[in-house]
Structure formats: C-alpha cells, structure tokens
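Hi L., both proteins are below.
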Amino acid sequence: GSVRGKKIAVLGLTFKPNTDDMRDAPSITIIQALLDGGASVHVFDPEGMEASKGMLGDVTYGKDAYDIADGADAVVIVTEWDQFRALDLPRLKKTMKNPVIVDLRNIYSNADVTKHGFTYFPIGKKRMAS
C-alpha cells in the first residue's frame, strides 16, 4: 500500500553490521523511495548515523530502535545488527501505531514475531498471518 503520510522506522543504515560503512548501503535507496512516496522516515543505526548525514535527505535520527518506533506505522529492518536480533518485541509493539515489521534480513522467524501480534513481512520467506 501507500506510505504517504505514514511514519516508517528504519533500523540499520550501514552496508553491513559492525561498521559505519555507508558505501552502496541499501538503506539509501530504500529511504529515498520511502521519502519519494510521502513517508516520514525515522532512522537508527548503532554506528552509521554520523556517516549517513548528508546522504539520506529529510529523515529524523533517533536514539535507539524504540525511540524511532514510537508511533510508527511500520519498522523496516535493513541491517542485521545483533541488537536488532534481540529487540523486546512486546515493548516494540506497545510503542508502535501499527505493529508491522518488514524484515529485509530475515533475522526473525515468522512464529516469533506473529506470536507477539505483529504483521510480519519477511523477504524470501512465506508470510504467516498475525
């Protein structure tokens, strides 16, 4: 559906975890598409936020995953940082407007996410209903 007017939280900006390397990072293209579609984009990365400034356009930087997910219509996991693998899913759900996770790295299993009431869109896996 349309992202116009939606708040989208993007977790992970860098090309890969444990670096601040933004060269060829998929987050750049994804975030630009979200902005072009009219979304309000909020981002967090443990290492790459400083390196990403000036590359991403009109985004809001947050202090952690829960901060940017507050009131979000969806969370998009772009980089597979260990801290994103260990999110407190009940806490995350409480902060969000709509409990939707788009997992571009398949760091969660369908069962783990949907049992907490999320609508889950893994890339390359069959989606289970929430």
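That was the first. Here is the second:
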Amino acid sequence: MNEDRIKGQWKQLQGKLKARWGKLTDDDLKVAEGGSEYLAGKLQERYGIAKDEAMKQLKEFDESGR
C-alpha cells in the first residue's frame, strides 16, 4: 500500500476498511493510522491468515481503488 496516500486519506478509508474486513475494530483502525504493517498484523490475528496473505489482500484493496 502507498503509505503516504493512505495516511492522507485515512479518515475516508476507515469506513471502507471496516466494510471489507468487519472484524477490524475502531480501535484497530485508530491505532493503525494508515500503517499497512499494523493492519496486516490485525488481519492476520482476526482472520487467522498468514501475514503474506494479509499483505496481498491489502495490496489488492489498494489497487482496486477501494
């Protein structure tokens, strides 16, 4: 994910992230503040997927234009 772009649009993205990954909490998103590494870790924790799969999903989310 493009960290600068994500951080700049973070408030708008939070709702879209929760719509895509409903198990993420408001606290998760608040702490993440656009950091893809933290988000990947939370996806890994909440969904029981490997970190590389979480990063892949985040990349696809970013590339799809959300």
